[in-house]
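Dock NDP; give full complex structure.
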Amino acid sequence: MTLILDGKKLAQTMQAEIAVGVADFVRKHGFAPGLAAVLVGEDAASQVYVRNKRKACENVGIQSWLHALPVDTTQDALLHLIAQLNTDTNVSGILVQLSLPRQIDESVIVDAVAPLKDVDGFSPMSLGLMMSGQPRFFPCTPYGVQQILVRNGIAIDGKHIVIVGRSNIVGKPLAMLLMQKADGANATVTVCHSRSRDIGVLTRQADIVVVAIGKERFLKCDMIKPGAVVVDVGINRTAEGKLVGDVDFDAVKKVASAITPVPGGIGPMTITMLLQNTLRAAILQHG
Ligand code: NDP
């Protein structure tokens, strides 16, 4: 019987735990942790992501503010806003929704967020700390992947995990997280990408396969070994408008021992880890 790793349900459980942590923080400090969300332009998908993140904040008692800027915002204007948010003591975490319009260099903006408010975990400081084994904020999607495994009792220690995709926001930091010398990690990690040869040969060796490439139903059932655990990070919309992942779910689930669905897998976990990081940021700043 294949275990469906229900991210939606786990997200609810974890958000209830975070709400308890937020209430403790409020009792101690007399104000709630706060997330400033920055959205530049009117991309419909980004608007939905930001709305969902703010709604999740509200559910756990985290304050949130939306800074919606026009699409022609200059890099200097955005840097000015971030500098203000960096010094605002009500703001525990800053979320700059990517991607940004062409006139703005994303890496400059990500680097401008105060390290203690980097709840997305994308800044060179956060990534460097993780790289050197002293993590502060794990990027939300990799953190969500790790937590869905850990909280479902799937051992990571000593397991061979093959990650397909090496982006800066998913594949690369996930590899770094899973190879930490720490509980809930200690994996042997292989990372593949668009230049990798014979990806099936690699994924068939894995105890756990994670796919994050943005290619509809890429992972087929003959690309895993029987009993492997499969985590699908991808979000793709089919020609018929259906949301599907990077895994051929119906076929792969017959071979896997556990699998995440799309939707309802890593998506809700990503949002939950943002809340977790925001609470952590508030505690780091205020005790
Ligand atoms: P990117 O486009 O930034 O990176 C894609 C990665 O996949 C690259 O490393 C690329 O290789 C690799 N790749 C592309 N095609 C192939 C292929 N045919 N074989 C092997 N590797 C390939 O994507 P993201 O990491 O941002 O996102 C990946 C997916 O995850 C998307 O569907 C996205 O929507 C989803 N996502 C979901 C989130 C969630 O909360 N559930 C959060 C973030 C992303 P190369 O480096 O060589 O170009």
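Observed: The chain is about 40% helix and 15% strand.
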